[in-house]
Amino acid sequence: MTISASGAQTSALLLPAIYSNTLSGGSAGFSSLPNSPVGNSSTSLSAQSLALSSNIWAAINVGSRNRVVFWDSVPDFSQLAVSGSLSLVDMQSSACEPACSSNGICTSSGTCSCAAGFTGASCESGFFGLSCQACTSGCLDCDDGISGTGKCLAFNITNAPSSCNSLNGECGSSGQCSCNAGWTTADNGTACSKCASGFFLTSTSDCKICEIGCSACADITGDCQTCKSGFTQDANDKTKCDVEPTTTSSGTVCPDGSFSSGTTCSTCSPSCQTCNGATSNDCIICASGSYAFNGSCITADSNGVCEGTGLIADNDKKECDTCGAKRTSCGISGCLPGSFLSNGSCVGSRPAGTFISSQANTTCSVCDSSCFTCAGSSTFCLTCANGELASNGQCVSTCPANTVAANSTKTCLNCHPHAFNQCLSCPSDRPVLNQGRCLPVCGKSQFFDSTSGSCQACDSSCSSCSGSGSSNCLSCSSSSQVLKGGSCISANCNGTAYVVTGLGVCLSDLVVVPQGSGSAAPLPSITGLTQPTVVTQTPSKRLQWWEILLMALGCAFIFLAVIWCWRRMARKQRAKRTKAFAQAKNIDQSTSWRRRLVRFGEKLFGHRASKRAHNQEMEKLMLISDYQYPPEKRSRYYPPSVLPSLYDVGRSRDRLRAVDSAASRLSGPSLYSQVTGVPRNGLEARQPVKKDLITSRFSASSYPAFHKKNNYNPKSGTYL
């Protein structure tokens, strides 16, 4: 461990710190927690005070007293009951549970950091023997520990079925999967985990083939659910389907070994016992010594395996059947990776009392009768039968020298300073013996009594201590007391000051207030040292009904204002388009001299505004807005217009034309009528008679005589 020096006057207590002066004053030195066991090393300290965070303890040699364990800050080493030079020997976090073995050290994160050669939550396993040797390469699990033999208990598995999401199939190097016979991919996507068509699942989790003639059968029982064409279910055995007898055209039933070829029964192939055709591929039941496989009959080898297949010959079913879910073949060996051959079957785990000799051998061999469990060979016992103790592979009645019997495991354990839970006595750097384990420290409110070799409770006034009685305190349990000469006494802090938690000193001793000529100035009030600042959140205030009403009215006003602005803008745009259209059609004559003359005449003779001018405005609207729709379409497709009908205006216009026509019969219209289009109410001023006579002034009989009398020329329209 190393401690770095610094000129800082205070620290945040995130790391252990020492100070050259009392009350955490002077130059400071900080140290991080070690990440590996310290061993027997020590570091000299030149300090007058020490600061520790709440989850760290430090073991310090003080003078002649070895391993004084500090759990709290020390504001002044001179106030302890022990004195002398200081030397730091160990420092760890107290957050690990269970405590680390001597092969590791507890870190601030609450985990054990293991030394080289050890693994596990408490650094208690992974290697074996007194010299901590690594397990054999390729070994997934071995007999490890101080008293372990290193024998391999489980080997690493190459291309295990799980590596390609398979259950009963072989995985290739590129991740492809090849299912064993009778297996297929299940609905959930797991390969080789469902029985294929024509197979059923047994109570031993194997897929077996259905009986001959059955296309689908029930799991567990194997009862046939669907027979193939030409078969009927056996009345006595629900697992079987019987072949229907064949008959000739004359009604003769063909015996076994023959089939109907029309009018006669023909002999089956020698490979068939029963058939429905002449070739060996037409066999229903194969002849003795051969077995049905994929529509043909094949023989079996000396091991009972159907030739050219990985299936076993079944004499009862007369067909080739599967060997088992975990088998790759039906030979002597042939289990899937991770499975073991035991008593002719492939199993997922080794049965008790068996062993495998190597990684390449998956056959389970039985241990010697003297062993309850063994490894590597039948006579290398890990545990013994008949109540004996296992010691280095042998079964003994008493343990050899330098070993001790462990009744829980029935083994002889080696004595070693790094033993995890087998200790009878402990070394000085881990003096506390607790349930066979050697621990570095007792609890915080305890001290280690070297005389009895056990942990003893501190005095009630002490939070931590170096010995028995009230005069060996290292920190005080009461927040109103401070340490003086190893004893906890009343603090008697000045004014309103108090004892700072974790430092064990009055705040007035840490803060120096200058004294004036008058009355003493009050000590500054510093908050947040003993308790965190609590931030309170004011609950949100609910709105009153009138506030909600005002908000609603405001939203309505904004909405209406937007609608008004939009309508106004639309009217301006429509007026602009109407004016542009009228100018383009030359119907906007409001500023012409003729219009001004009409208005002058209207005012002079007391008439209202000219209907003709009104009609022109109506024509504009009819071209742009609602007036463009006829009444029948307006009622069917469009809402009714709020404007007066133009068709009434049209009828007024027709009456005006009639009046003009009547007036023109006698004479030409007046200038006022021609300009305004409205006949005068009074008498018209006489105008020169037209040259052409109006025909309506003469009767039908007198009109031709009149023309003749006056020498009328119809070509020129004049009288001679």
UniProtKB/TrEMBL annotation:
Disulfide bridge positions per record: 96-106, 114-123
Name assigned to this protein: Insulin-like growth factor binding protein
UniProt keyword list: Disulfide bond, EGF-like domain, Membrane, Transmembrane, Transmembrane helix
Annotated Pfam families: EGF_Teneurin
Domain EGF-like residue range list: 92-124
Listed transmembrane segments: 545-566
InterPro entries: EGF (IPR000742), Furin_repeat (IPR006212), Growth_fac_rcpt_cys_sf (IPR009030)
Gene3D superfamilies: Hormone Receptor, Insulin-like Growth Factor Receptor 1, Chain A, domain 2, Laminin
Organism: Lentinula lateritia
